[in-house]
Amino acid sequence: MKRGIRDWVIFWVLVLDEVVAFGVVVLVLWAFDIIVPISVVIFVALAVGTFAFLFHKLVIPSFHKKQTAGMEGMIGMEAKVIEPLAPEGIVRVEGELWKAKAVDVNIAAGEDVEILEVNRLILKVRRKENGLSD
Fold first, then answer.
1. Is this model's pTM higher than 0.70 or not?
2. How many whole angstroms separate alpha carbon 89 and alpha carbon 27?
């Protein structure tokens, strides 16, 4: 399913959730013989619907942001080799030391590398050249 269509399906499912919740509240009020004027019901329904639309319209773009926390967020980050990667060694990533494995060639201490993958607690890296990845 295309990204835009999937987003709208998610949106309408979330709106349907709001409608069902509102319906349950109205039924509970009706079950206890609490009379609510139809104008109040319509106003509240429109207010909740508008809030749901605006909230979900603002939330949908966050579905597509790159993860920035956890292991998946490390992919693409730059690290400094502390202990030579021949092919395994130690790198520093944002002040933390990680065990790393070079994917192509041995890499000397002091060089910059790019994180390609996180496999358990071992980073798979490749050399960065001229500030740009290969």
1. no
2. 64
